[in-house]
Amino acid sequence: MEVITDAELEEETKSTAGWKFYWRKYKQWPETETETHSYTITSVNVSDGGHYRCRAGRGNQVYYTHYSDALWVNVTENLKPVVIIRPDSHVFRGETVTFRCKIQGGGDTEWQFSWYKNNNPLYHNTQEFSHNSVIHEDSGNYTCRGLRSSDTQISEISDAGILTVSETAEAVVSVSPQSWLTEGDSVTLNCEIKSSSTGWTFSWYTDVLYRDSQGSYRYRPELLSDSSRGSGGSYTLSPVTLNHTGVYMCRAVLGELCRIVSKDNTAYIKEVKERWDTFQSQAIFYGIMKKVMKPPMTLNTEERAINMLKSLPAMFPSAVAPPKKLERESEALLHVLMPSEDPNTYLQRRPLSCPVLIVDKENCMVAIGTTPVATFPKNHLHEGALYLMVYYYALHLTYPKCIATLLSVLQTEVLQDEIHERDTTSSYRKAITEWKKFIGE
Fold it and tell me: Whose C-alpha in 5, 175, 178, 253 is 20 to 30 A from the C-alpha of 245?
């Protein structure tokens, strides 16, 4: 952007000997006097812009000329954009990263934007764009600049926003002061994340012995009820007893999970729930139209929620069939326990490790792999898909291929998180086109 740094106004005369010059800006007084016919403003500001006139004078009893015609000096603001990277400038492989070019004080609606990575042009020309499932090669220096359509003013190029993509986060456990103890001692378990220290919430688990349906003894991780920890991830046992002997593990979750599910984040939660309710109400008629659902015959909200979750994968089908042991696509989302069925036994033989909703008579549980991670009342089952999306996002999990189309539709339609064209599948493009046509968009 070109900025006026010096303003010079001159009055042409045949000779300047004996003359003094007087300069006046419109609505400002007194005049500024100079010995020469030039007037220089250094370190010019926007406020220095305006109409300027000059006149000359000489003699003891000063004789003044008439004022000159006015000259307009236009000083434009030195606009420099800022690159904003969310959720952080240091992320892990598989996360979704959003870039935004913000021009402070310049407004946003009338600007067109250009993006650069390591000084090479990118194909994006919008104020904001996202990279889904970032990899190490996405690391680099991102800059932007703006072109204002109203006056073709071009901003300066921004300072670089530096994105660093690391491999999947790894949790490391240490023990202080030592792992060999006597009863009555105190011990602290520490959980740290390599290459990252902020924004994590920690939970602790211990291996518990149990007998499976075949009568064999096995171990499974069990969440310690008082183990939730914020930054630092320390868990202290004091005083220790023989019952504390065992294997301890930690799991770290980025603050994104807390942000999404926090009861204090009412605005975000309300907005997403409203979009989900709208999506469900439209999906009922969409499912009936596609002949994968029957008109609801019950007022029981739990039964209707189960019917919806079982039908969604067929509404937005993927090209890849589910594993044979899974029988049908909906089992990648939901499993309703039979009266005598043990949830741990089911998880042990389940062929997928993706998040799943387990429903029994009274409660619902979210499990990942063989590990239960959350429970919620059964009367919230109609929001079960949101619980699953929370964990896919917070733990940066890859969508299973057999339900990838459905989850991608929920990502764009409910969470309103765009998927770049390069990351879409033909199944998703077909499904979203049919859906948009049905809802009239």
Answer: 253
